[in-house]
Amino acid sequence: MNSESRTVLIDMDGVMADFDTAALANVPQEQIVERSEFYVAKDYPIKLQPTIEAAYNTPGFFENLTPMPGLFEAWQSLIDNGYRPQVASSPLSSNPTAIEGKIKWLDRVMVPEFGARVVDDAIIDKNKWKYSGIALIDDRPSVPRGPEGKDFAEWQHILFGWEHKATIPLATTALRLLNWHDTKHLIELLHLVERTSQQQ
Q: What is the per-residue pLDDT for 173?
């Protein structure tokens, strides 16, 4: 099986790039709470939500995010094991520079390490079900698999992050990857996805 048929779609915000730290930069440290909502601002009192929303809607927000720890090693591990990692990220409609900023981030962070193909192949679209892959690594607990509740997606969802299970919103997936550090577990998950797919 070649790498083209072993595509692994990978979300950006909160998966490749540290969205939360930047979004909460203007929230006092003593008021920062454990994540329990997918939309980070919803974890905070109404009086703090405009501060958080203003941060992630600021021009230049996306291009300046910090890479998630272990990202480069995990991306290389995917390549070394015959997979084809491909960016699949939703635009943030409330930030008019989101798409431009995401591409600039990839140019700044990923291209020097892995070449221009990362940008050339990048998908910036909220409808991730339209794209082929064996897996989608995403921090959204429930990713739409098609329009109006239909299931068109080829990939299997691997939930990224949410280290404390009690905080995960109810509708979620069984496959979980807590972070990028455990590359062995990452590859094991993908092998499991492939075996499951072959049995269907």
A: 55
Burial 27-45 (b: 16+ CB within 10 A, else e): beeeeeeebeeeebbebbe
Q: Residue 36: its pLDDT value, please?
A: 82
125: left (phi over 0), alpha (psi -120 to 50) or beta: beta
Q: Give me the phi and psi of 162, to 5 degrees please.
A: 55, 60
Cβ neighbour number for residue 196 with a 10 Å cutoff: 12
Q: Each residue of 33-62: pLDDT tens digit?
A: 888 888 899 999 999 999 999 999 999 999
Angle at alpha carbon of residue 156, lines to 95 and 176, rounded to 5°: 80
Nearest to 68 by CA among 109, 118, 26: 109
What residues have CB less than 8 Å from 21, skipping those under 6 apart? 66
Q: Give the pLDDT score at 38.
A: 85
Q: Above 60 in pLDDT, residue 127?
A: yes
pTM (global) more than 0.70: yes
